[in-house]
Design goal:
The protein has 293 residues and is an alpha/beta fold. It is built from eleven helices and ten strands. It has a domain at 19-110 and 183-261: P-loop containing nucleotide triphosphate hydrolases (Rossmann fold), CATH 3.40.50.300. The longest helix has 18 residues, at 195-212.
Length: 293
């Protein structure tokens, strides 16, 4: 595993990590090994970015933590609670402590923003109260406060299917926060968003974790966003951890270990500067190269 020296010293874990995975393994019925003995500790309050190529096991890891996918072997501990040892009823109770934010938002399209956010309290109210959408006044007040914090208070009565992608993601964040979780699991929060909105969503997530002391594991493809916003980066390849360190240690050698051989020496800005401007007329000798032929 590659890990460079962090800025200002080594990464230090707290004595009581919020999340621990111990030798976590997942092999699907097809025989594919998605996770191969992954051991990881996430301290309270830390924002961790999970990066790696498609098929590396990032989404599987997140889903094994809350047992949306059942691990083949290994353990997952949330504080002192062994999630892998819980019965279904016990797991439902424990999941209150874990907020899940999905790539495709997982909103109920025909419901309003407020109704979608209040669904984050379903684990705390009785069946009939949730069926008739009768929530305590305290829950309603918290929902309004949370929507104001994520910038959507003016959209409380708007249907989810009338929102933009960034607004939908904010609803998903507000819904997760209304659970009053200790851990956030975030699966590709920026995959369907434009660059500006992606930065806004990542900034919001980091700010909220800081304000509430939440640990977060964010599965993200955008390495630049991971470097800019996360406190720690973990790289997966072939179901194994091949990098674990601070964003500043994510150098060319680390990126090669995670993604494979590539020229990582040039920044995105340098790559863009090297490309000819759109519509430019190139000398004959340069045209074939610029066209990739």
């Amino acid at each position: 595993m590659i890990a460079g020296p962090p800025r200002g010293g080594p990464v230090r874990f707290l004595a009581d990590p919020m999340l621990r995975t111990i030798e976590l393994t997942k092999r699907y019925a097809t025989g594919d090994l998605a996770l191969d003995r992954v051991s990881l500790e996430v301290p309270r309050g830390q924002v961790l970015a999970l990066i790696g190529p498609s098929g590396a096991g990032k989404s599987t890891l997140i889903r094994c933590v809350n047992r949306l996918v059942e691990p083949t072997s290994g353990r997952v501990l949330l504080g002192d609670t062994d999630l892998t040892a819980l019965t279904r009823a016990e797991l439902r109770m424990a999941r209150r402590r874990i907020g899940m934010i999905f790539q495709e938002y997982a909103l109920i399209e025909r419901l309003t923003v407020m109704e979608n956010v209040l669904s984050g309290r379903l684990g705390y109210v009785g069946f009939w109260a949730s069926w008739f959408r009768r929530f305590p006044a305290a829950d309603l007040a918290r929902a309004f406060e949370t929507l104001e914090r994520v910038g959507l208070v003016e959209f409380v009565d708007k249907r989810a299917d009338a929102l933009s992608g960034g607004q939908r993601q904010r609803v998903g964040i507000a819904r997760a926060l209304l659970q009053n979780p200790e851990l956030l699991l975030v699966d590709e929060p920026t995959a369907s968003l434009d660059p500006k909105t992606s930065r806004q969503i990542m900034r919001l997530l980091v700010e909220l974790c800081g304000e509430r002391g939440l640990a977060a594991v964010i599965n993200i493809h955008d390495v630049v966003l991971a470097q800019e916003f996360a406190q720690r980066v973990v790289g997966l390849r072939g179901g194994r951890i091949v990098f674990d360190g601070p964003p500043g240690a994510l150098n060319a050698a680390a990126l090669t270990a995670i993604y494979g051989d590539e020229d990582w020496s040039r920044t995105a800005a340098e790559e863009a500067a090297a490309r000819p401007p759109r519509g430019a007329v190139l000398p004959d000798r340069d045209r074939m190269g610029a066209l990739g032929q």
